[in-house]
Amino acid sequence: xxxxxxxxxxxxxxxxxxxxxxxxxxxxxxxxxxxxxxxxxxxxxxxxxxxxxxxxxxxxxxxxxxxxxxxxxxxxxxxxxxxxxxxxxxxxxxxxxxxxxxxxxxxxxxxxxxxxxxxxxxxxxxxxxxxxxxxxxxxxxxxxxxxxxxxxx
Length: 153
Hints:
Helices cover about 25% and strands about 20% of the residues. It contains 4 helices and 6 strands, in the order E-E-E-E-H-E-E-H-H-H.
């Protein structure tokens, strides 16, 4: 296991997502994923495919919300089943349709998430929020309510 300081995983040399033979079968024997092998390096990425292709299932597995039926996933070198907390500290997942917090602004929502992650200093939270919103070119939209955003936003 990687060393942990202040409950934050040590950064790996390369922030990557690696799946090895990932399979997921839902109740009723519906196969959503069957032998998915991929490596995603540092940077932004997207999953594209038709409805029912398994995109949401794969994202839920990567984010530790779902356990694969077979195979394994490593995020930043951490196993998503064995080291769930370490994986969850590395990133967040926000599906396009998540049905909550529509009346919060992006800034307020990110501030709330930072508090939940244990970031207690307002100056530190403010800096992180600015960095996150700048990275996705949404700083100018920070005061807009989440429910008013388009799907792409």
